[in-house]
Amino acid sequence: MKIAVLPGDGIGTEIVAEAVKVLKALDLKFELETAPVGGAAYEAAGHPLPDSTLKLAREADAILFGAVGDWKYDKLDRPLRPEQAILGLRKALGLFANFRPAICYEQLTHASSLKPELVAGLDILIIRELTGDIYFGQPRGRRVATDGHFPGAEEAFDTMRYSRPEIERIARVAFEAARKRGKKVTSVDKANVLETFQLWKDVVTEVHKDYQDVQLDHMYVDNAAMQLVKAPKAFDVIVTGNMFGDILSDEASMLTGSIGMLPSASLNDKKQGLYEPSHGSAPDIAGKGVANPLATILSAAMMLRFSLGQAEAADRIEAAVKQVLALGLRTPDIYSEGTTRVGTVQMGDAVVNALR
Length: 356
Ligand SMILES: NC(=O)c1ccc[n+]([C@@H]2O[C@H](COP(=O)([O-])OP(=O)(O)OC[C@H]3O[C@@H](n4cnc5c(N)ncnc54)[C@H](O)[C@@H]3O)[C@@H](O)[C@H]2O)c1
Ligand SMILES: CC(C)[C@H](C(=O)O)[C@@H](O)C(=O)O
Ligand SMILES: [Mg+2]
Description:
This protein is an alpha/beta fold. Helix content is 39%, strand content 18%. The chain has 2 domains: 1-102 and 262-356, 3-Layer(aba) Sandwich (Isopropylmalate Dehydrogenase), CATH 3.40.718.10; 112-133 and 161-256, Rossmann fold, CATH 3.40.50. It has helices spanning 11-24, 39-45, 51-59, 83-92, 116-119, 164-179, 195-208, 221-230, 242-256, 294-306, 311-326, 344-355, and strands at 2-8, 31-34, 62-67, 97-103, 123-129, 141-144, 154-157, 184-189, 215-220, 237-240, 265-267, 273-275, 329-330, 340-341. Strand 8, helix 7 (195-208) and strand 9 (215-220) form a beta-alpha-beta unit. The structure holds nicotinamide-adenine-dinucleotide (NAD), 3-isopropylmalic acid and magnesium ion (MG).
């Protein structure tokens, strides 16, 4: 089993080190190969996704990814910015299905942004389409406006696009996932305004005919953002487009206590996968040893389950995380009174100890 380890920038290196430590503590044989990505790769090789890193990612059975980005690269031309590395990997490997489970662990109900009773037992799954939408739609660019409110002014434009097969395959992923859990899918769109999402709604409704055992609801994204904080437990599986999924998953992370608790899996149709926390490189806390490594450690568990056929090892990691939380250990982002504040490395060590 070959795992490509791409730590990236900022807290990426700190949290991936902890996940690697946890993987190494399992009695499994992995070949781990590390490569630079993002700003780190730009510094080392002049490009955020060097060919050698992409090659390694393609050849590996799975990819463990940290995070990329830093404000200092904001002035670079877009193709050279660190974020292009993760977008490029998703596109190159066809990782269209992004699973972002928002689970509120029993011990963290008091760390959530919502009242404990609203999040106790929360277990929802956001399935975000990851290789389409306005993120990748062409054309895009800048030009001088020839119409609109300010003809002659500089304007910028992006294109929101989805094709029928793109929607169909992500809808199937969502219905299949719902079949194994709460049997309910909420498809989140903006069909009242956007043609792209009218097609989305039509196609999801058609695909649903093959999944009559699963309940399907449609919800506009603005309402979904509101319902997520009003009554999050009313959701089971949420399926949505690339941009709405990006935003709603950060929102959902706060129900779990912190974005440092939200893992993710990005899969293609061959079940090859990239596993990363849903958060970014957190430049504000990078290098301070305080980042929460649990989202990355839980992403490693998803990797074992989805790409490496090691469900038992995944269960063990998840149980170890629960045990560490039960011991009262908390990085600052999930700290609450009466618990013990620890740093990134101590948290990783505690998970390793709990595995033993
Ligand atoms: N997949 C990725 O690599 C990815 C994802 C999101 C953002 N980014 C990039 O990261 C950079 C910073 O973006 P941002 O600040 O908007 O988002 P961010 O997710 O990096 O940080 C948002 C807030 O959450 C906190 N946070 C994030 N992860 C945490 C953790 N594990 N433990 C504790 N606190 C944590 C940060 O300290 C910050 O206050 C940008 O360059 C952005 O483009 C990359
Ligand atoms: C860094 C950025 C390109 C990325 C996204 O928007 O997909 C991030 O926010 C995420 O959620 O993984
Ligand atoms: Mg995001």
